[in-house]
Design goal:
Length: 238
């Protein structure tokens, strides 16, 4: 898992970034390094447009490479907040690392986790390793979404044969929405599992509830016909 640690560089936070980077490396995380050059000494960027372009493009490239963003919210940073918003809207988890009081709602809204010390930071990153379903902040107002996945497979516990199904998800979000491209990766974890139809729907429903905490949720699995019987299993929260 690649981690991008962002924070204030222009406002004196470069040592904080280095400290967190070193901590994560010691714990075995693959940390991307944006500090190959230090621009913290520059007082005014208004006449340095080319340098601005180089810095921003490099940091956006790191955001693209990263699996998770760690945002050190100790000092103000225009760039770090932009990186957080952009990464979050692409479905990447953001861990807000803040050891002191925070007087802005913006970093919290766009973060998936809040860590108040290094142990909570490590705990959050370890939990992200296990997550397959990604979500993004709901900035699209009130709406309902329906998603259809046609390539679901698992193994029947009775016959040992492969089962095929179409999974339909309908939900009304609260604060977060599904980054639905991650569902393909999530559903593939069922491919070689021996599991009953009802258990498939139960597990998907519970995982989506944990990831989204939606207003409404409905999960329907329509399995292929077997022995003349077509099974359709549904679970919902209204």
């Amino acid at each position: 898992m690649k981690v991008f640690v962002c924070g204030s560089i222009g406002y004196g936070g470069i040592e904080d970034i280095k400290r967190v980077q070193n901590t994560l490396r010691k714990r075995g995380f693959d940390v991307l390094d944006q500090l190959s050059y230090d621009y913290s000494h520059i007082e005014d960027f208004r006449d340095k447009r080319k340098l601005c372009e180089e810095i921003v493009k490099k940091d956006l490239e790191l955001c693209s490479k990263a699996d998770v963003i760690v945002f050190i919210a100790k000092r103000p940073s225009f760039g770090a907040m932009a990186e957080v918003v952009i990464s979050s809207l692409k479905g990447k988890p953001v861990v807000l690392f803040c050891t002191d009081e925070l007087r802005s709602p913006w970093p919290i809204y766009f973060s998936s986790f809040i860590a108040r010390d290094e142990e909570e930071l490590i705990e959050a990153l370890n939990s992200i390793k296990l997550k397959k379903i990604r979500t993004i902040p709901n900035v699209y107002s009130e709406h309902e979404m329906q998603l259809i996945y046609e390539n679901f497979t698992c193994i029947c516990p009775v016959t040992g044969m492969r089962d095929y199904a179409v999974i339909r998800i309908r939900y009304k979000p609260k604060n977060r929405v599904l980054e639905y491209e991650s569902l393909d990766e999530y559903f593939k974890t069922f491919r070689d599992r021996v599991i009953h139809h009802e258990a498939v729907v139960e597990e998907i429903f519970n995982d989506l509830m944990k990831a989204l905490d939606p207003e409404k949720l409905e999960v329907v699995a329509e399995f292929e016909r077997r022995s003349g019987v077509k099974a359709i299993v549904k679970k919902c929260k209204k």
